[in-house]
Amino acid sequence: MLTIQHLHNWRAELPSEIQQQISHRLSFKKFRKDEFIYNSGETSNCGFQVVSGKVKICNYNKEGRELIVAILHAGDCFGDIGLITRYNRPNYAVACTDVEVNVLSHKDYLHLSQHFPEMSIALNRFLCTRIQYTFASLNEALLLPLYERLGAAIVRLALSRGAKELEAVSLPDISQEMLGQMVGATRQSVGRELKKMQQENLIQIEYGKIFINDIDNMIKLFDLNLSHQAIVPLYSTMVDTA
Known about the structure:
By secondary structure, the protein is α+β, with helices and mostly antiparallel strands. It has helices at 16-24, 81-84, 106-115, 118-143, 146-161, 176-183, 187-199, 215-222, and strands at residues 2-5, 27-31, 36-38, 46-52, 55-60, 66-72, 77-78, 92-95, 99-105, 163-165, 168-170, 203-206, 209-212, 231-234. The chain has two domains: 2-140, Jelly Rolls, CATH 2.60.120; 145-234, Arc Repressor Mutant, subunit A (Orthogonal Bundle).
């Protein structure tokens, strides 16, 4: 799997002068846990960046079943369609914790990008990478059985935000229900597949927390089930917490 720092942050590599100009035009908003930042179908007229807390990008069917598209952290950008097309929002953004975000308006983006064309280049590169990330996720959802989808999701979480604990790698706090929402399965189905992984000595589950016994082996098992190389946002370097 290909880990990319700042995968969800198109502003990170911009020169400091441009970042400073952007900062002068930002507004800030705070949301409580479980509050909707925006809803599917709303007109988009701005882009957001997480300042603190966690945000999930998700969708629901008519029965209320949830599919989690991404979990975003401090520095990550979302809702960027509002900076360019102003089409209606295709999904929901929900605060997973108490959250603060900054907001860049469509009008201010256009004004700044006319003076700093590097912004458009950075945003286009970011959106192309996100398309590749989305297609990889779609291919997994359509072509892989649940066991392999779940294994790939666990590896992505470990590489992205895992922590070394003795000989194992622990996943960030995540419930079986949330894992199911990430891979399009019920909590019960996820539980059965996790039990198989335990029986195969791939993982351990202690007090609801998932530990990967051998991360290199897990990568070999689940990384190349499809012909493409999966893309993973890098937030940590698996710091040893032992």
